[in-house]
Design a protein that fits this description.
The protein has 2 domains: about 5-135, 60s Ribosomal Protein L30, Chain: A; about 150-319, Phosphoribosyl-aminoimidazole Synthetase, Chain A, domain 2, CATH 3.90.650.10. It contains 11 helices and 13 strands. It has helices at about 5-15, 55-70, 90-110, 160-165, 175-180, 185-195, 210-215, 235-240, 250-255, 270-275, 295-300; strands at about 20-25, 30-35, 35-45, 75-85, 110-120, 125-135, 150, 200-205, 220-225, 260-265, 285-290, 305-310, 315-319. It has a 7-stranded mixed β-sheet with strand order 8-11-7-12-9-13-10, with helices on both faces. About 45% of the residues are buried. The model has no long low-confidence stretch (mean pLDDT about 95).
Length: about 325
């Protein structure tokens, strides 16, 4: 399925419109107006990207929380969702995963209210998160305007590194920098996006930089022009691409994007796979007016200007 196929299906079968729904299916999270308060709701589940259960739980929680931040919201509470094989794992593994998740929730100022587990041959974990937002200042996936600047707030390459770890090409020690990024909340980036008057925002996760960028422009009158050399990349990533450590997800993402992305002639197949690489707990992809960049510069957080919004027809152009 593509970046928003499930949301589109939900939109097709949803009966009627509800005036309390401020943001419906198709964005990073839904937003519902309840007694004057904008309630943000989302859910996400992933498989392990690291070996340590506590760290996996913390990363998975960050990944789930990110959708609330992508809407400009503040997480409040969460429910845990765990697919778990009792034949393959001791209960202590699930307990450590939950401890990691609670650690991330505490950092975000949110609480775990409960959860649900089910028998599954493959370990899975995630959260359903509820947050709140300013009803008059909600970040949305669409809305980018011509001449906006495109920025990203974390480097990419997580999927390639996770594949390399599973394939024995990298050690846990090699993953330290990547793990630090996955454990970094998108709260500050979200606050700055609001302060900078962002025109559009999303988080970069399973559909890769190109997939999520396409979700921001599809059906619009603008294109994203992305400069490949300006996209920040984690250490070891290029080395692992050359070693063939690319996840199936990257190939699937590229197939979905066929005809939706225009690549310059110098963009290699390896470059394309990297730009389509599935991320876990990735950064925010934000469009702002040029003057808004100063907000990020003054805050001193990591970000990279990777391109510009140009007049177009809803596609991505990679130079």
């Amino acid at each position: 399925m593509g970046p928003s196929d499930l949301e589109e299906i939900i939109g097709d079968i949803q009966s009627g419109e509800n005036p309390s729904v401020l943001v419906g299916p198709g964005d990073d999270a839904g937003v519902y107006l309840l007694n004057g308060t904008a309630i943000v709701e989302t859910v996400d589940v992933i498989t392990p990207v690291v070996n340590d259960p506590f760290t996996f739980g913390a990363i998975s929680a960050n990944n789930s929380l990110s959708d609330v931040y992508a809407m400009g919201g503040m997480p409040v509470s969460a429910l845990a969702i765990a697919g778990f094989s009792s034949c393959d794992y001791e209960p202590v593994v699930l307990k450590e995963i939950l401890r990691g998740a609670v650690h991330s929730l505490n950092r975000a100022g949110a609480v775990l209210m409960g959860g649900h587990s089910f028998e599954d041959s493959e370990l899975k974990f995630g959260l359903s998160v509820m947050g709140i937002a300013n009803k008059d200042n909600i970040l949305k996936v669409s809305g980018a305007e011509e001449d906006d600047i495109i920025i990203i707030t974390k480097p990419i390459g997580i999927g390639i590194l996770a594949t390399s770890l599973k394939g024995g090409k990298l050690t846990d020690d090699d993953m330290k920098t990547a793990v630090e990024w996955m454990l970094t909340l998108n709260d500050k980036a979200s606050e700055l996006a609001l302060k900078a008057g962002a025109t559009a925002c999303t988080d970069v996760t399973g559909f890769g930089l190109l997939g999520h960028a396409h979700n921001m422009v599809k059906g619009s009158g603008v294109d994203f022009e992305i400069k490949k050399d300006s996209v920040p990349v984690l250490e070891h990533v290029h080395e692992m691409i050359n070693a063939g450590m690319v996840s199936e997800g990257a190939y699937n993402n590229l197939r979905f994007l066929d005809g939706k992305v225009e690549f310059s002639s110098h963009i290699t197949d390896e470059d394309r796979l990297l730009l389509a690489d599935p991320q876990t707990s990735g950064g925010l992809l934000i469009t702002v007016k040029e003057k808004g960049i100063k907000v990020f510069e003054d805050a001193g957080i990591f970000f990279s200007v990777i391109g510009r919004v140009i007049k177009g027809s809803g596609k991505i152009v990679v130079r």
